[in-house]
Each structure stands twice: as C-alpha cells, then as structure tokens.
Amino acid sequence: MKGSDADNPSSALSKLIKFVVKGQKNKRGDYLSINSKGKDVELGIEIKDSSIFCPGDKTENCQHGFRRTDVLPAIDSTKTLDGVTVFHQSFRMNPQLPLNLTHGYLLASIELPNVFACTLGDHVFDIFAGSDFSSNLTQKSPSDPKTIRIRDLNSKVLYSMPIKNDTLYNTAITVDWVGNSLMVSASEGDDELKIVAGPLENSPKVVDPANKLTGEWHVQLIKFPLPNPADPYDKRSDVVHKGLQESNLHEGVFFSNMYVEDGRLGKVKSSGPPQGSAPHRVPERARS
C-alpha cells in the first residue's frame, strides 16, 4: 500500500476514505504516504505551499489563510454519530517534516459543517497543537505551544500532552450523543489507554436537532496563519482567508489506529485494529 493508492477508487486505501480536503489542482497522493513504524501502519498527512482548499472547486471560495490536508474516513453516520461512540486516533510527529509551533495546527476533529461552505464549522471535539491564534500582533499564546490539546466545542482544553520527538500519542474520545458529554482517554507508545478527563458536558450545539448526524470525522493537518499587520484588526480573525504563511512549506504528521467503537458498555478498547491493518472502516451508507 502506498499514498498514491488514494487516487485509485478500486484500491483498499481509497475505499477507507470518504473524501480528502486538499490543494485544488493536486492529487490525493501528493499529500499522503504510507509508513511502517513497528507494529503500526501509519498514514502520513502532509501540507505544502499548494495545500489551499477551494470548496466546490470555486476560486472565490479558496481558503488562502490555511494550509490544509484532511482525510475523512468512510464511516456510517447512523452508527457513529448516535448513542455513545469512541473515536480512536494515534499520531506521531514526522521528524523529517517538523511543524512550526509559532502557528496553530488542527490534528483531528468532528466538524459540524457550516452552512457557509467557505468557512470552518464548529467541532464536537478537536485535537490542536502549537500556538493559539490572536489578532493582537504582540499577544503570546495562552496555551503552551509545545503541547497537544484536546478541546470541546467551545475550545476549552480538556487534556494536554507535551510534544516530544518520535512519541506515539494514542487518544480515544468518547462522545455521548444523547447525554451530550465528552470523555478523553490517552496514552503514549504501547501504554494502556487511561481515562484522563471527563465525562464533561459539551456545548448544547452538539445535540441541536439541526446538527443530528451531520458531523464529519477529520484526521487532518490544518496550519493556521499568523496575523497579517496589513489586514484591518477586525478582519484578522478570518483565519480561513486572511493571515500570513511562510513559503517553501513542507510539514507532516503520521496517523495510525483510526477507528470507531461502540461505547455503550462504558469501556474503551486499549488496542487498535489487528496488527498491520489499515484504518478501520464502518461501512458508509449508500449515497445517491
């Protein structure tokens, strides 16, 4: 298996993927790779100068503020966005393609799509690293940039982990779609997952009937911009379209053990899918 298999609809890798958010004129394989690391098969997600997503392939929608590549695993929303479900994702920094932690990075999320296609929706939860964005040019990040933070819909940090070289971070986020709560389990390397936060109440937006079964699970690498002094202060917070990004960009993160389990029994599985397997797929509903 290789990253370019994502461009072949009949490949095993492609069948695990619902959609890839990527640069408008490039192939999926330009931003994806497959790497073996011990017992794990890792999906490498990369961003480059060309990683500018244009929703609907419309130039006027291009997200020039971000550099992003997102992989949306193929899941059955009727099963994974209802009841109690646990979203597993492990990740490791790519030592050959390091991140610039003066920027912020989104690593995973369940996004409630915004009615405006060119903006970023709310997140049931997300996993964030690096610096928090501020329109103030001199304000320092309130969170330690050298940490990975798991946050609720209101961006409240539920748990944080220090970023260390070549460390495998395992996370399992339990979402109670009825009781509207989040629980976080985490570990490093081969250590067993342990509950580190929650259950904690999430935003009422999650259980708004208008949002039922609309969430999209993203494993991703979204690089937030730095504020542009040339932009009016009240425009700088439009991070999707505004801000500064360095050129000659090439950064990456490895992902593994991506799957969803039924959490109704109140237990979180400590190990991932069978050794050497690709990310687990919950069959997608037939789409018209």
UniProtKB/TrEMBL annotation:
Residues 265-288 are annotated as: Disordered. InterPro entries: GH131_N. Pfam families: GH131_N (PF18271). Residues 19-264 form the Glycoside hydrolase 131 catalytic N-terminal domain. This is Glycoside hydrolase 131 catalytic N-terminal domain-containing protein. It comes from Melampsora larici-populina (strain 98AG31 / pathotype 3-4-7) (Poplar leaf rust fungus).
